[in-house]
Predict the structure.
Amino acid sequence: MSGQTATIGGVRAKREQQAVTTRPVRRRRRLGPGKPIRFGAAIGPVLLLAIWSIGSAAGWLDPRVLSAPWTVVTTTGDLIADGRLQSNLLTSTQRAFVGLGLGILLGTVLALASGLSRIGEAVLDGPIQIKRAIPSLALLPLLILWLGIGETMKITTITLGVFVPIYIHTHNGLRTIDSRYVELAQTVGLSRWTFVRRVVLPGALPGFLLGLRFAVTGAWLSLVVVEQINSTSGIGYMMELARTYGQTDIIIVGLVLYGILGLLSDGAVRLIQRKALSWRRTLAD
Amino acid sequence: MLKNRLAVLAGAAAAITLLAGCGGDAAAGGGPKLALDAALPASVPDGARIVVGDPTTQKALELSGQLGKVTKFVQFANLSGGPQTTEAFRAKALDVGAVAEIPPIHATWTGLNVRIVASKFRQDPLNHPIYELGVAPGVEVKTLADLRGKKVAYSPGQAQGALVLKVLKKAGLTKEDVELVELPSTGDIYPNALAARQVEVAPIGGVAIKRYLSKYGKDGATTIRHGLRDDAAHLYVQTASLEDEGKAAAIRAYVAAWGVAQDWIDKHPKQWIEGYYVKDQGLSQADGEWLVDNAGHPEITADWSAAIERQQETIQLLAKETGNEEIKAADLYDLRFQAVAAEAIKAGAAK
């Protein structure tokens, strides 16, 4: 705290000094990142694609190890013509969304329960941190023992992977709400439910949305794990089948698909972030 | 205040219990009991259901239009092979699994109680092996004796692992004469490990042989034949399923349908390549033709004595190498099923 006042004091002193001196005022150095670049989000992926294309065209990349981008495009075309890609994508998307929906619900409810009550925190927080430290892949054998090999097991695995980031970030966002707002809510005599609706949820929203960014990609990631067991469809299944037959190009189609899906879902969440948090004035704007 | 807290806790607890669904319903038959030496019921009672992990046969039944005959009492699960089926057995989520020679032995060693109820072999098995020994690019292995001092991929508990032990025995080598690299054989791990020269020799099977040679042959990759029988394919079940009268009847009916389906595959290679390899598995027509040619013709006999003898040899070798107790191969087979598949094929041919 005292350090902060000192710097503020320092800045003030500097300004006064500048006001006193008669030299022309130089433009102050910009400390933020500045104006956003147009289509800036696309530059990184496009650069990556360019390096991949050049590497394949020049023959630096062995096609047996990494298929060329155009091979991936033609393979994708073949898979679409077969109808294999669409049907697998549809199955995967359904699984991911059901798991994501359940995970969001569970993560939010648990974050509120453990964020708003000390008992809740004492009971819930520990086990969730333990779950966080356990990889989903390692849990799978147990989940099969408990839930069998059907859809229940698959969706549970995705849900378990998704709720943790939602919980962590929502809980953190909730706990960092400024105590002034809590005091104000108490002063104006809000009921607990109104307090949750008007103060807690909006205050935890930035954290929740950050958790959601982790969760949407996490849902896609869990798919490849669960679709290797007793699945007859899905992107994970398609890739696993291709592994059995050494079809590297189909595996890369799957990887590219995951990349695109992840990028799109992340972009969607960021759009929501921008709209929902328009009241914030931060370094990003 | 406390009431609110308790409500919050109750909500959280409810959310957690929501997640705890129910397990599989296989192997938990509530029907009448059947002794393991009683005659098998000839017809499947209403309401009997089994879960079967045998995707290849499922496809064959579908393509031959026979699927409707079994769907009344069979629910298919898309898993096969030792690791997945034993896991599902333990989860009580499966009654019948399709595997090779080793998994029934391994399942028994790991405390599961299983029985083999159907067996398929290949005619002229030495010229139609399932596996060949892949040799890494730039490594000289022309005969089995050349294996001495080489890095060989070894996966205990899988057919490929037992094959490696058998090959060493045939070559007159011991485990100390080679460097065994423990590596599970799933997906494309073995061909990739060979191509990257992480191992020098590894058993690879099916279309992987063709792909390995076409991809890495120009770098000097080769394969050699091992000259042993590796053609056993079984259906095995949990003994608990056989003790339930309804399930035992359903298993018997499924084994009969399985036999007819294997025969159909043999007699309709064109439809099989088109419907299974190309449409279902996403392979090329050429790959499918190669696989059919290499598989030769199936042999489903009504006499298992020779098969039991071969299995006993395998058990002896594995028990010695892995330090497990030697079990009786005859105990792994349920001889009440010995003639079921062969007779079903005969009856089908007579129609």
In short: The interface with chain B takes residues 64, 82, 84, 105-106, 109-110, 112-114, 116-117, 119-120, 123-124, 141, 144-150, 152, 156, 159-160, 192, 229-232, 238, 240-247, 250 of chain A (CB under 8 Å). The radius of gyration of chain A is 25 Å.
